[in-house]
Design brief:
Chain lengths: ~110, ~110
């Protein structure tokens, strides 16, 4: 079954504002990753946070992970029009096959207006 | 110098036809994947190969047959196409299949079955 669920489904903000997206999941994970997808393009990896980490930064991105609540958040600070895209969380878990599998949520569509 | 490439980018075909999608990665990765993204943007893994060996095979109709001639290529053949096969198919690769692996996605193949 689907692992990650992003919230909100869509978010519209002005340039310069911060954007926060949330992700909830259901089972134990090895790590959680965030990806961005521009319209009509493939997914691009943004950041990975391990299950034993609580917070991670990369440029204007800040990711938190709360394994007790099985949730993560992605904060984009000082947003730009170029940040307009869909953002997906993906949980990395070991499946029945014994191999690590990424399971994606449905994504949050972010629109940043100039 | 494209990292993960897919052909064709667009594919429009009639129900009942057989079609193939090709994927190549020049990153030297051992593991490759096929994902299906439906109209609601839900991205789901279909198959994964590691060094030409099938390691993940999700519940996918056996009309879909992946083939990896070498570790840099993973092709997807679809027999007797159905309307519900219409989606965007993404190929991806990662260095290995262990934990903490980042995946690199191709640009996608947009399949429309009429």
């Amino acid at each position: 079954s689907q692992q990650g669920e992003e919230d909100p489904q869509a978010l519209s903000i002005q340039e310069g504002e911060n954007a926060t997206m949330n992700c909830s999941y259901k089972t134990s994970i090895n790590n959680l990753q965030w990806y961005r997808q521009n319209s009509g393009r493939g997914l691009v990896h943004l950041i990975l946070i391990r299950s034993n980490e609580r917070e991670k930064h990369s440029g204007r991105l800040r990711v938190t992970l709360d394994t007790s609540k099985k949730s993560s958040s992605l904060l984009i600070t000082a947003s730009r029009a170029a940040d307009t895209a869909s953002y997906f969380c993906a949980t990395d878990a070991t499946g029945n096959s014994g191999y690590s599998t990424l399971t994606f949520g449905k994504g949050t569509m972010l629109l940043v207006s100039p | 110098d494209t990292a993960v490439s897919q052909t064709p980018k667009y594919l429009v075909t009639q129900m009942g036809n057989d079609k193939s999608i090709k994927c190549e990665q020049n990153l030297g990765h051992d593991t490759m994947y096929w994902y299906k993204q439906d109209s609601k943007k839900f991205l789901k893994i279909m198959f994964s190969y590691n060094n030409k060996e099938l390691i993940i095979n999700e519940t996918v109709p056996n009309r879909f047959s992946p083939k990896s001639p070498d570790k840099a290529h993973l092709n997807l053949h679809i027999n007797s196409l159905e309307l519900g096969d219409s989606a965007v198919y993404f190929c991806a690769s990662s260095p290995g299949h262990g934990r903490k692996e980042t995946q690199y996605f191709g640009p996608g193949t947009r399949l429309l079955v009429l």
